[in-house]
Amino acid sequence: MEIINNLQWRYATKRFDTEKKLSKQQLDLLLQSINLAATSYGLQPFELIVAEDSSIRGQLGEAANNQKQVTEASHVFVFAAKTDISNEYINSFVERISEVRKIPLSELADFRTKLINSMASKSKEDRFQWAARQAYISLGFLLSAAAMEKIDACPMEGFDRNRFDEILGLKEKGLASVVMATLGFRSPEDKYSTLAKVRMPLDRLVTVV
Ligand SMILES: Cc1cc2nc3c(=O)[nH]c(=O)nc-3n(C[C@H](O)[C@H](O)[C@H](O)COP(=O)(O)O)c2cc1C
Protein backbone atom coordinates (compact mmCIF):
# COMPACT_ATOMS: atom_id res chain seq x y z
CA MET A 1 0.00 0.00 0.00
CA GLU A 2 2.93 2.36 0.51
CA ILE A 3 3.39 2.75 -3.24
CA ILE A 4 -0.28 3.69 -3.65
CA ASN A 5 -0.13 6.08 -0.70
CA ASN A 6 2.89 7.82 -2.23
CA LEU A 7 1.21 8.02 -5.63
CA GLN A 8 -1.85 9.53 -3.96
CA TRP A 9 0.43 12.00 -2.20
CA ARG A 10 1.97 13.23 -5.44
CA TYR A 11 0.24 15.86 -7.51
CA ALA A 12 1.22 18.23 -10.28
CA THR A 13 2.73 20.90 -8.07
CA LYS A 14 1.97 24.46 -9.12
CA ARG A 15 3.78 26.43 -6.42
CA PHE A 16 7.14 25.36 -5.04
CA ASP A 17 8.87 26.51 -1.85
CA THR A 18 11.74 28.62 -3.24
CA GLU A 19 13.73 28.12 -0.02
CA LYS A 20 13.87 24.32 -0.31
CA LYS A 21 16.37 22.76 -2.66
CA LEU A 22 17.02 19.14 -3.61
CA SER A 23 20.13 17.67 -1.97
CA LYS A 24 22.84 16.23 -4.20
CA GLN A 25 21.71 12.72 -3.20
CA GLN A 26 18.12 13.47 -4.13
CA LEU A 27 19.21 14.93 -7.46
CA ASP A 28 21.39 11.88 -8.20
CA LEU A 29 18.53 9.52 -7.34
CA LEU A 30 16.17 11.33 -9.71
CA LEU A 31 18.71 11.32 -12.54
CA GLN A 32 19.30 7.61 -12.02
CA SER A 33 15.57 6.88 -12.17
CA ILE A 34 15.54 8.49 -15.63
CA ASN A 35 18.60 6.56 -16.74
CA LEU A 36 17.12 3.27 -15.50
CA ALA A 37 13.85 3.68 -17.42
CA ALA A 38 12.97 1.06 -20.00
CA THR A 39 13.42 2.16 -23.61
CA SER A 40 12.78 0.31 -26.85
CA TYR A 41 15.89 -1.84 -27.58
CA GLY A 42 17.56 0.07 -24.73
CA LEU A 43 18.52 2.81 -27.19
CA GLN A 44 17.75 5.77 -24.91
CA PRO A 45 17.13 8.10 -27.87
CA PHE A 46 16.93 11.28 -25.80
CA GLU A 47 18.96 13.49 -23.48
CA LEU A 48 18.13 15.39 -20.34
CA ILE A 49 19.00 19.04 -19.79
CA VAL A 50 19.11 20.15 -16.16
CA ALA A 51 18.51 23.90 -16.15
CA GLU A 52 20.29 25.47 -13.17
CA ASP A 53 21.32 28.90 -14.44
CA SER A 54 18.83 31.50 -13.17
CA SER A 55 18.92 33.61 -16.32
CA ILE A 56 18.23 30.54 -18.48
CA ARG A 57 15.46 29.53 -16.05
CA GLY A 58 13.93 33.01 -16.44
CA GLN A 59 13.93 32.70 -20.23
CA LEU A 60 12.44 29.19 -20.04
CA GLY A 61 9.73 30.48 -17.69
CA GLU A 62 8.75 33.17 -20.17
CA ALA A 63 8.61 30.55 -22.94
CA ALA A 64 6.36 28.43 -20.68
CA ASN A 65 3.52 30.95 -20.40
CA ASN A 66 5.18 32.31 -17.24
CA GLN A 67 4.17 29.20 -15.30
CA LYS A 68 5.74 29.83 -11.90
CA GLN A 69 7.05 26.30 -11.42
CA VAL A 70 9.86 26.97 -13.89
CA THR A 71 11.42 29.70 -11.77
CA GLU A 72 10.26 28.61 -8.29
CA ALA A 73 11.13 24.89 -8.32
CA SER A 74 14.48 23.65 -7.09
CA HIS A 75 15.33 22.02 -10.43
CA VAL A 76 14.05 21.98 -14.01
CA PHE A 77 14.58 18.91 -16.17
CA VAL A 78 13.97 19.27 -19.92
CA PHE A 79 13.63 16.04 -21.89
CA ALA A 80 14.99 16.42 -25.42
CA ALA A 81 14.42 13.68 -28.00
CA LYS A 82 16.87 12.96 -30.80
CA THR A 83 15.60 14.50 -34.02
CA ASP A 84 17.05 11.53 -35.86
CA ILE A 85 18.75 8.25 -35.01
CA SER A 86 22.03 8.04 -36.90
CA ASN A 87 23.93 4.86 -37.69
CA GLU A 88 26.80 6.35 -35.65
CA TYR A 89 24.52 6.50 -32.62
CA ILE A 90 23.45 2.90 -33.14
CA ASN A 91 27.12 1.91 -33.48
CA SER A 92 28.03 3.66 -30.24
CA PHE A 93 25.13 1.90 -28.48
CA VAL A 94 26.22 -1.52 -29.73
CA GLU A 95 29.80 -0.77 -28.69
CA ARG A 96 28.57 0.12 -25.23
CA ILE A 97 26.74 -3.23 -24.93
CA SER A 98 29.92 -4.99 -26.05
CA GLU A 99 31.97 -3.13 -23.43
CA VAL A 100 29.54 -3.50 -20.50
CA ARG A 101 28.57 -7.12 -21.14
CA LYS A 102 31.97 -8.15 -22.48
CA ILE A 103 30.51 -9.55 -25.69
CA PRO A 104 32.62 -9.40 -28.88
CA LEU A 105 31.23 -6.88 -31.39
CA SER A 106 31.03 -9.65 -33.98
CA GLU A 107 28.37 -11.40 -31.86
CA LEU A 108 26.29 -8.21 -31.88
CA ALA A 109 26.43 -7.73 -35.66
CA ASP A 110 22.93 -9.15 -36.27
CA PHE A 111 21.44 -7.02 -33.49
CA ARG A 112 23.13 -3.92 -34.97
CA THR A 113 21.69 -4.72 -38.41
CA LYS A 114 18.24 -5.22 -36.84
CA LEU A 115 18.41 -1.80 -35.20
CA ILE A 116 19.59 -0.09 -38.38
CA ASN A 117 16.82 -1.76 -40.41
CA SER A 118 14.21 -0.96 -37.79
CA MET A 119 15.14 2.74 -37.84
CA ALA A 120 15.38 2.78 -41.66
CA SER A 121 11.81 1.41 -41.89
CA LYS A 122 10.44 4.60 -40.25
CA SER A 123 10.28 8.12 -41.68
CA LYS A 124 12.42 10.79 -40.00
CA GLU A 125 9.31 12.23 -38.34
CA ASP A 126 8.28 8.77 -37.09
CA ARG A 127 11.77 8.25 -35.66
CA PHE A 128 11.47 11.53 -33.79
CA GLN A 129 7.98 10.69 -32.48
CA TRP A 130 9.27 7.25 -31.41
CA ALA A 131 12.20 8.91 -29.62
CA ALA A 132 9.81 11.32 -27.89
CA ARG A 133 7.70 8.40 -26.61
CA GLN A 134 10.81 6.87 -25.06
CA ALA A 135 11.48 10.16 -23.27
CA TYR A 136 7.93 10.14 -21.87
CA ILE A 137 8.46 6.68 -20.39
CA SER A 138 11.44 8.02 -18.48
CA LEU A 139 9.31 10.96 -17.34
CA GLY A 140 6.96 8.38 -15.78
CA PHE A 141 9.86 6.68 -14.01
CA LEU A 142 11.02 10.08 -12.73
CA LEU A 143 7.58 11.04 -11.38
CA SER A 144 7.20 7.69 -9.60
CA ALA A 145 10.70 7.81 -8.11
CA ALA A 146 10.13 11.39 -6.93
CA ALA A 147 6.85 10.39 -5.25
CA MET A 148 8.53 7.46 -3.46
CA GLU A 149 11.10 9.91 -2.06
CA LYS A 150 8.48 12.55 -1.19
CA ILE A 151 9.92 14.95 -3.73
CA ASP A 152 7.37 17.13 -5.49
CA ALA A 153 7.20 17.45 -9.25
CA CYS A 154 5.19 18.94 -12.07
CA PRO A 155 5.30 17.34 -15.53
CA MET A 156 4.86 20.09 -18.12
CA GLU A 157 4.13 20.29 -21.81
CA GLY A 158 2.81 23.83 -21.70
CA PHE A 159 5.78 25.55 -23.30
CA ASP A 160 6.95 26.80 -26.67
CA ARG A 161 9.19 24.00 -27.90
CA ASN A 162 10.92 26.09 -30.58
CA ARG A 163 11.82 28.76 -28.05
CA PHE A 164 13.09 26.14 -25.59
CA ASP A 165 15.23 24.63 -28.36
CA GLU A 166 16.70 28.06 -29.13
CA ILE A 167 17.36 28.96 -25.49
CA LEU A 168 19.04 25.62 -24.82
CA GLY A 169 20.83 25.35 -28.18
CA LEU A 170 19.26 21.96 -28.86
CA LYS A 171 18.88 22.04 -32.65
CA GLU A 172 22.62 22.05 -33.29
CA LYS A 173 22.92 19.01 -31.03
CA GLY A 174 20.33 17.06 -33.03
CA LEU A 175 17.80 17.35 -30.21
CA ALA A 176 14.33 18.86 -29.73
CA SER A 177 12.56 19.47 -26.43
CA VAL A 178 9.44 17.37 -25.86
CA VAL A 179 8.43 17.64 -22.20
CA MET A 180 9.83 18.91 -18.92
CA ALA A 181 9.49 18.33 -15.20
CA THR A 182 10.03 20.82 -12.42
CA LEU A 183 11.15 19.32 -9.11
CA GLY A 184 11.43 20.46 -5.52
CA PHE A 185 9.12 20.83 -2.55
CA ARG A 186 5.56 22.11 -2.46
CA SER A 187 4.81 25.55 -1.05
CA PRO A 188 2.26 25.71 1.78
CA GLU A 189 0.53 28.29 -0.43
CA ASP A 190 -0.17 25.79 -3.21
CA LYS A 191 -3.94 25.35 -3.07
CA TYR A 192 -3.73 22.40 -5.44
CA SER A 193 -2.00 20.27 -2.79
CA THR A 194 -5.25 19.74 -0.88
CA LEU A 195 -7.59 19.10 -3.81
CA ALA A 196 -9.04 15.62 -4.10
CA LYS A 197 -7.49 13.53 -6.85
CA VAL A 198 -9.80 13.15 -9.84
CA ARG A 199 -9.54 9.78 -11.57
CA MET A 200 -11.94 7.51 -13.39
CA PRO A 201 -13.25 4.51 -11.47
CA LEU A 202 -11.00 1.56 -12.30
CA ASP A 203 -13.81 -0.28 -14.09
CA ARG A 204 -13.97 2.53 -16.69
CA LEU A 205 -10.24 2.36 -17.25
CA VAL A 206 -9.76 -1.38 -17.33
CA THR A 207 -11.34 -3.98 -19.58
CA VAL A 208 -10.69 -7.61 -18.82
CA VAL A 209 -11.23 -9.86 -21.81
C1 LIG B 1 2.58 15.28 -20.26
C2 LIG B 1 2.00 16.20 -19.23
C3 LIG B 1 2.00 17.57 -19.45
C4 LIG B 1 1.52 18.44 -18.46
N1 LIG B 1 1.65 19.80 -18.63
C5 LIG B 1 1.37 20.62 -17.59
C6 LIG B 1 1.67 22.01 -17.66
O1 LIG B 1 2.20 22.53 -18.63
N2 LIG B 1 1.38 22.77 -16.57
C7 LIG B 1 0.81 22.25 -15.44
O2 LIG B 1 0.60 22.99 -14.49
N3 LIG B 1 0.50 20.94 -15.36
C8 LIG B 1 0.77 20.11 -16.40
N4 LIG B 1 0.52 18.77 -16.30
C9 LIG B 1 -0.09 18.24 -15.06
C10 LIG B 1 -1.51 17.68 -15.27
O3 LIG B 1 -2.40 18.74 -15.45
C11 LIG B 1 -1.85 16.80 -14.07
O4 LIG B 1 -0.94 15.72 -14.01
C12 LIG B 1 -3.29 16.27 -14.15
O5 LIG B 1 -4.21 17.33 -14.04
C13 LIG B 1 -3.59 15.24 -13.07
O6 LIG B 1 -3.39 15.78 -11.80
P1 LIG B 1 -2.33 15.21 -10.76
O7 LIG B 1 -1.07 14.91 -11.52
O8 LIG B 1 -2.12 16.33 -9.78
O9 LIG B 1 -2.90 13.99 -10.13
C14 LIG B 1 0.97 17.90 -17.28
C15 LIG B 1 0.93 16.50 -17.10
C16 LIG B 1 1.46 15.68 -18.04
C17 LIG B 1 1.48 14.18 -17.77
SSE layout and pairings?
Layout (H helix, E strand, L loop, with lengths): L1 H8 L14 H12 L10 E6 L2 H9 L6 H4 L2 E8 L4 H15 L7 H12 L3 H25 L3 E5 L4 H8 L6 E10 L17 H4 L4
Antiparallel strand pairs: 1-2, 2-4, 3-4
Shape: globular
The string of secondary-structure elements, in order, is HHEHHEHHHEHEH
Report the C-alpha radius of gyration, rounded: 19 Å
In helices, the fraction of residues equals 40-55%
Taking the sheet with the most strands, its summary is: 4 strands, antiparallel
State the secondary-structure class.
Answer: alpha+beta
**Helical region count?**
9
Task: Characterize the quaternary organization of these chains.
Answer: single chain
Ligands: flavin mononucleotide
**Order of neighbouring strands in the sheet with most strands:** 1-2-4-3
Strand content: 5-15%
Task: Extract low-pLDDT stretches.
Answer: none
Cα distance spanning the termini: 26 Å
